[in-house]
Design brief:
The complex is a heterodimer of chains A (431) and B (418).
Chain A: H1 8-14, E1 22-30, H2 34-48, E2 52-59, E3 72-76, H3 84-90, E4 95-100, H4 109-115, E5 118-121, H5 126-147, E6 152-155, H6 161-168, E7 175-177, E8 200-204, H7 212-225, E9 228-233, H8 238-247, E10 253-257, H9 261-267, E11 270-272, H10 275-283, E12 287-292, E13 298-302, H11 308-313, E14 317-318, H12 326-334, H13 338-351, H14 354-364, H15 375-430
Parallel strand pairs in A: 1-2, 1-4, 2-3, 4-5, 5-6, 6-7, 8-9, 8-11, 9-10, 11-12, 12-14
Antiparallel strand pairs in A: 12-13
Helix pairs in contact in A: 2-14, 5-6, 7-12, 10-13
Chain B: H1 8-11, E1 18-25, H2 30-44, E2 48-54, H3 59-64, E3 68-70, H4 77-89, E4 92-96, H5 105-108, E5 113-117, H6 122-128, H7 131-143, E6 148-151, H8 157-163, E7 171-173, H9 180-183, E8 197-200, H10 208-221, E9 225-229, H11 234-242, E10 249-252, H12 257-260, E11 265-267, H13 271-278, E12 282-287, E13 294-297, H14 303-308, E14 312-313, H15 320-329, H16 332-345, H17 348-357, H18 370-414
Parallel strand pairs in B: 1-2, 1-4, 2-3, 4-5, 5-6, 6-7, 8-9, 8-11, 9-10, 11-12, 12-14
Antiparallel strand pairs in B: 12-13
Chain lengths: 431, 418
């Protein structure tokens, strides 16, 4: 179990605002990624309205690159039972607590739901979340949704609501859509004058398995026009990405491990991406193509002023949407004018401003529940958190040991082959 | 079978009382034999009995008694779902505490009548079950102040109460439920034999106090000592036995019963003492502090109390010499009378009565607290996945070390120029 973290400074920060204007956001990691960026932007909007915001998560690389606004960051070593007392101290009836659900944080959901006004946010397409969370975690969320109709449940795409509700349950009124937003649209990402276009298709994102459908869509777009594809970001899924791109006939590609995807977006002409990436690319004046999540991923509509509302409502990751062929995508891209790009940047500033996400959170949260969490649920939560952390540690160690095994095996085979090759010569010389 | 893998008979409405027992694994040993006998008695009285346990060879003993056995593949989510579904229909539920079953208490906590079986000393259970899992058991018992705890002997009551943070009044010794078959003499009446001390025990580190007590008794009299049983600590028991005067010996034999006919005094615990009495063998119990001091010769007057205490007494030790004097006063007629009483009275009836009478009943539908139960099922999944990952990691580590050794060997053989 990790050492606990003192909640007092965060508590003092929250209490700097009146009850009812305190926001606690619980994320898995304070890392460089779409969820962190989203809540950083939300924190900015909330602070501007006089709220006090604490964002709590596990310490992670890249978090310092996120604009957290005036939010107070509370970093724990990891989400095991050692982190729980701090969360219990912070999440109270005077605070709106938002839990971004992941494998590692699902066990916190009953505690968060019973602590005060609460919203659970689920940041992925339903099929991805179903596979990622698995039946046992979904059952925990189902139990929370059943026991706490006052808890808001938000997904990042309007069409995601019903499929996600089918997995988790809960009253229809508890569910809603939280648009993805960016606080950087206004200034930081506007295309620098004279920046040379790259003449390629860019797919900038976390390089993780849940984003494979975007890589597939991007490969389809690039291959159709014979353009080079650059997949840029950080993550452990590079071997799969390399293998997949190599299998696409005639595709010229590169995979670049670089956490600074904003710099790539600023120079891009055509970006295939979802979520925050899509918004930032539009704000930067690039053309953006969404991706359909159909299990394997296909290109979707390019963003135009006419398709913007539909794409934004689905977080640029369509489910049950009509996919396009690469050729159809290029045909539509060819019709996009400079005025369209400018209009799209304006739409991002208008519809994807951080206040929109904050409003969605505030609208979703019902009243505080009447009953506190049971001691039994608390004891099981602690054990489950420790279980998640232990499994996570083992899972992280397995690739390391696998690589070491493969390295030693290859070395042993090399040395044994060398020895075999030398042995007859040695025998011959002796004879 | 119905949904959740439960027998349809269990889920179907019926008037017969339903008794659910949750055990981690059905391994041969005292726990399985005790509950198999108890449940057979319950079936005889018209109860419907269901055991949920990961597989184990002892399941046949339960099935032979008319009990239904559900064997989930491990203690993941499916097992928790099955327990929750079964608990909703149960009138009585018993959860035998173990690392895998402690989280299951979250699914059982609203059963109408709940009993936790703690079959070990507080020290053993505290070592075996991780603190986070014990916390779940403590929270469940705090949430159900009417739930009782049974232990194999009264000497464990206080320690287990401390471990589970409950009032000692809630913990009760569960008598051995022995069948006539188990305690009937195996052969004709025994002949007169010289004083030979027999210690029948599993050869584990935890059971060393028994051998120590037998050594003390045998040495006092200068009697030969035999330690009979099987287990991983035969060397430890052998070292103790050889310190006896004359040196005792250890016989690794799982069949203890025939050896009783060659001895005159038995030092042991539980069922083996009842068997010894039935064989006309004199029996001695040991002290509750676990230091291996012989305390009392089991006599007609107090055998039932000692049976409740699993033949471990917290009486003041009178000394081995005094015990021998008592043993020698026991006439063959008195021993025959005691054996007859044991056969008549040590049945499973009183044990089942005690089990069903432990703790109180909760009005309600028996359905678990959904969030705690769902979290516990997740915990079960995580424990299973962690065990799998750990096993895989062990294999990988071995393979890595093997290839590293191969490489180093090849490098050495290539020599410095290689």
């Amino acid at each position: 179990m990790s050492a606990g973290v003192a909640p007092e400074p965060a508590l003092a920060h929250l209490r700097g605002a009146p009850a009812g204007r305190r926001l606690l956001v619980v994320v898995h990691r304070l890392s460089l990624g779409g969820v962190s960026a989203l809540y950083g932007a939300v924190a900015g909007a909330a602070t501007a309205r006089g709220w006090a915001v604490v964002i709590m998560g596990a310490r992670a690389e890249g978090g310092e690159r996120i604009d957290w606004g005036e939010a107070h960051l509370l970093a724990v070593d990891e989400w095991d039972a050692g982190a729980l007392p701090a969360l219990e101290a912070l999440a109270d009836e005077a605070t709106l607590t938002v839990l971004a659900v992941t494998q590692e944080t699902t066990a916190l959901a009953p505690l968060v739901a019973a602590s005060g006004r609460a919203v659970l946010t689920i940041h992925g397409p339903p099929a991805v979340m179903r596979e990622w969370l698995g039946p046992a975690r979904l059952a925990v969320l189902r139990a929370v949704a059943g026991a706490h109709p006052e808890v808001g449940l938000l997904v990042p795409g309007r069409p995601y609501v019903e499929p996600q509700r089918a997995d988790i349950g809960g009253a229809r009124g508890s569910w809603g859509w939280m648009p993805h937003v960016t606080g950087r649209a206004a200034a930081a990402l506007s295309r620098p004058g004279g920046a040379p276009p790259t003449g390629e298709v860019l797919c900038p994102q976390r390089l993780t398995p849940d984003k494979r459908f975007v890589v597939r869509a991007a490969a389809g777009v690039a291959a159709a026009a014979g353009a080079r594809l650059s997949v840029v970001g950080q993550g452990g899924d590079v071997p799969w990405i390399e293998e997949h791109l190599a299998s696409v006939s005639g595709l010229e590609y590169r995979v670049v491990q670089d956490p600074d995807i904003a710099a790539w977006i600023a120079r891009a002409e055509v970006v295939v991406g979802v979520g925050l990436v899509a918004l930032e690319a539009l704000a930067a004046g690039a053309c953006v193509v969404g991706a359909c999540y159909h299990g394997d991923g296909t290109p979707w509509e390019p963003a135009t002023p006419a398709t913007w509302a539909m794409l934004h409502a689905q977080n640029f990751a369509g489910i049950d949407a009509r996919p396009l062929s690469g050729e159809q995508v290029w045909e539509r891209l060819g019709a996009i004018t400079a005025a369209d790009r400018s209009a799209l940047a304006d739409l991002v500033r208008r519809d994807a401003a951080p206040a929109a996400a904050l409003d969605a959170l505030l609208a979703a949260a019902g009243p505080a529940p009447g009953r506190p969490p049971s001691a039994l649920a608390g004891a099981v939560t602690r054990a489950a958190l420790d279980g998640e952390a232990e499994l996570g540690r083992l899972a992280a160690y397995i690739p390391e040991v696998t690589a070491a095994r493969d390295w030693h095996r290859a070395r042993a085979e090399r040395l044994e082959a060398l020895r075999e090759a030398r042995a007859p010569q040695g025998d011959g010389a002796a004879g | 079978m119905s949904a959740g893998g439960l027998p349809t008979g269990w889920m179907r409405a019926g008037r017969e009382p339903r008794l659910l027992v949750v055990v981690d694994r059905l391994l041969p040993g005292g726990v399985s034999s005790r509950y198999a006998t108890l449940l057979a008695e319950a079936v005889r009285r018209g109860h419907r009995c269901l055991v949920i346990a990961a597989d184990g060879p002892a399941r046949h003993a339960f099935e032979a008694g008319g009990c239904q056995v559900v064997r989930p593949a491990g203690w993941g989510r499916d097992a928790h779902v099955a327990v929750a579904a079964a608990a909703a229909r149960a009138d009585h539920a018993v959860c035998v505490l173990a690392p895998d079953t402690a989280p299951v208490l979250a699914a059982l906590v609203r059963t109408r009548h709940l009993v936790v079986g703690a079959h070990g000393t507080a020290e053993l259970l505290g070592e075996w079950i991780a603190p986070a899992l014990l916390d779940i058991a403590r929270a469940a018992l705090a949430q159900r102040p009417d739930a009782g705890v049974v232990v194999p002997g009264r000497h464990m009551e206080r320690g287990v109460a401390g471990l589970l943070a409950i009032d000692p009044d809630r913990v009760r010794g569960l008598p051995h439920a022995v069948t006539r078959r188990e305690v009937e003499p195996a052969g004709p009446p025994r002949s007169v034999v010289p004083d030979i001390v027999l210690c029948a025990t599993r050869l584990t580190e935890e059971q060393r106090p028994l051998t120590r007590a037998a050594v003390a008794l045998a040495t006092e009299r200068g009697a030969p000592l035999l330690v009979v049983g099987t287990g991983p600590d035969s060397a430890g028991h052998r070292a103790l036995a050889e310190a006896s005067d004359p040196p005792g010996r250890v016989v690794e034999d799982p069949a203890v019963r025939p050896w009783m006919r060659r001895a005159s005094v038995l030092v042991g615990r539980g069922l083996v003492v009842l068997e010894a009495i039935a064989e006309g063998c004199r029996a001695v119990c040991i002290d509750a502090a676990g230091e291996g001091v012989p305390v009392r010769a089991v006599g007609a007057g107090d055998w039932r109390r000692l049976a409740d205490e699993n033949f471990v007494s917290d009486d003041t030790p009178p000394g081995a010499a005094a015990i021998w004097r008592t043993l020698h006063r026991q006439t063959p007629a008195a021993r025959r009378e005691l054996a007859a009483t044991v056969l008549r009275e040590a049945g499973p009836g009183p044990a089942l009565d005690r089990l069903l009478d432990t703790g109180g009943a909760l009005p309600g539908d028996g359905r678990p607290e959904p969030e705690a139960a769902a979290l516990a099922a997740l915990l079960g999944e995580l424990r299973t996945a962690t065990a799998d990952a750990s096993a895989w990691l062990t294999q990988l580590t071995r393979a890595r070390d093997h290839h590293r050794d191969r490489a180093e060997r090849a490098e050495r053989l290539l020599g410095p120029d290689g």
